[in-house]
């Protein structure tokens, strides 16, 4: 299955200047728990936002640059090719950024979304989830605390 995983603000904000605009340690733990030991698909800018490749995951990076070859990654030039590189009977995760989410949406089976209950200034956005195409099947509210400045909700959507 192809699963998109993202965290967004109230207006589908993903981030600004290739960085997240919030810090939610529990969401990082959830991301790690869901994506570890799986293929992860991302754009070049998302990959370059990491200090190093994420451990215990196969990185598939989409780039238009023919000479782009980061160590330890598979590089391809389209979402279709990226998906074709993933094992058919295993979960693979699309992890961003905004352009890649838009390209991947037609191929996606499940969306794992963390909705941060605040509005942020951003330059990258997650695609709008159409209620005609997607059904919310799980929702888990989390309140702000000493480590989390905002309330947030984990939401799981499946394609209708």
Automatic annotation (TrEMBL):
Pfam families: DHFR_1. Its EC number is 1.5.1.3. Keywords: NADP, One-carbon metabolism, Oxidoreductase. GO terms for molecular function: dihydrofolate reductase activity. This is Dihydrofolate reductase. It catalyses: (6S)-5,6,7,8-tetrahydrofolate + NADP(+) = 7,8-dihydrofolate + NADPH + H(+). Residues 1-159 form the DHFR domain. It comes from Flavobacterium procerum. The keyword Calcium does not apply. The keyword Oxidoreductase applies. PROSITE patterns: DHFR_2.
């Amino acid at each position: 299955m192809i699963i998109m995983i993202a965290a967004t603000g109230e207006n589908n904000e993903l981030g600004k200047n290739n960085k997240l605009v919030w810090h939610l340690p529990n969401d990082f733990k959830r991301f790690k728990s869901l994506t570890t030991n799986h293929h992860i698909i991302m754009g070049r800018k998302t990959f370059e936002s990491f200090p190093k490749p994420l451990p215990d995951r196969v990185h598939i990076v989409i780039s238009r640059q023919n000479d782009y070859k980061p160590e330890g990654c598979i590089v391809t030039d389209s979402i279709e090719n990226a998906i074709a590189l993933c094992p058919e009977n295993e979960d693979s995760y699309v992890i961003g950024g905004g352009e890649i989410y838009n390209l991947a949406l037609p191929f996606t089976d499940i969306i794992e979304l963390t909705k941060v209950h605040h509005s942020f200034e951003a330059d990258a956005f997650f695609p709008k989830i159409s209620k005609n195409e997607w059904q919310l099947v799980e929702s888990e509210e989390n309140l702000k605390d000493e480590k989390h400045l905002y309330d947030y909700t984990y939401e799981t959507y499946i394609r209708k």
